[in-house]
Amino acid sequence: MNKAAVQTPETGARKKAPDTGARVRKFLADNGALVGLVVLGLALFIATPDFLTGPNLLNIGIQASVIAVLAFGMTFVIVAAGIDLSVGSVAALSAMGSAWMFTQGNLPGWMALLGGLLIGTLSGAVSGFAVAYGRLPSFIATLAMLSIARGLTLVLSDGRPIATASEVSFLGGDLGPIPMPIVVLVIAGIAAALILNYTVIGRYMYAVGGNTEAARLSGIPVRRVLVTVFALSGLFAALAGLLLSGRLDSAQPQAASGYELDAIAAVVIGGASLAGGVGRISGTLIGALVLVVIRNGLNLLNVSSFWQQVVIGLVIALAVGADALRRKNSTH
């Protein structure tokens, strides 16, 4: 009897046995970032005994918090087949606006914190309006917002750091033995996953990213979805900016510069498709951890920061190449 087939007792039909190789390939395709993170962790554990220590793992969590929170918002945009180049600048503007409200506007700390979140949300919504109603490509609309937000940050600060409210500084402190950035990361990740997986707007994001015209014909309010998507990206960017300023105890005019590239890389490494319609918050978190673990490991190994940029660039290129290969295979 052919071992590649089995006889079903009900119908007598021959059924092909499961292909172990195919299952392994599917698992790697669906969980490649997680496998890569585990392999990377084991390699660094072998290379340096300082990697798997409690303080270093907490340090990795703290470093990953800002990038991951930024990337959660970016996930919404990429799932909806867009891109947001402004998240780093919006993060800086939100933190600076919050600090300015506290020091110059004399607002209570909690109001200044909420004000920072509102600034980020409105900034994202403006980009969303430009994309949805102005019909600008998301690349152009958010590139413009990148420049506007960074310019406003410099105007508010006059190029100098501004002290933050104690409520914002609390975000950079500790909650018992656990650093607050890690607590915020977990809460933000759960909230983002709930939005993407268990709400109507989350289902609409996948539909719009999968096929915008089909989504429109099926009655989905595509324009409102796009505005909401970018507003959510701005909100998570603001939270990331407040986390960063809380860690520094001040809002810095050049804070989060270039972080938008890390956010995009984390989403793509996590398995999202730049073509839209595919992406998971859990994958984005793993992608952010991959980036941070690589940097952390290279620092422990005393690798030059210049070479670190080269390595990160190669990782991003591999992730984008893997995405292109997945899309090519899915069309055949």
TrEMBL record:
A GO CC term assigned to this protein in UniProt: plasma membrane
Subcellular location, record wording: Cell membrane
Keywords: Cell inner membrane, Cell membrane, Membrane, Transmembrane, Transmembrane helix, Transport
GO molecular function ontology, one term from the record: transmembrane transporter activity
Membrane topology: Multi-pass membrane protein
InterPro entries (alphabetical): ABC_transp_permease
Keyword Membrane found: yes
Keyword Lipoprotein carried by entry: no
PANTHER family with a match to the protein in the record: ABC TRANSPORTER PERMEASE PROTEIN YPHD-RELATED, ABC TRANSPORTER PERMEASE PROTEIN YPHD-RELATED-RELATED
Protein name: ABC transporter permease
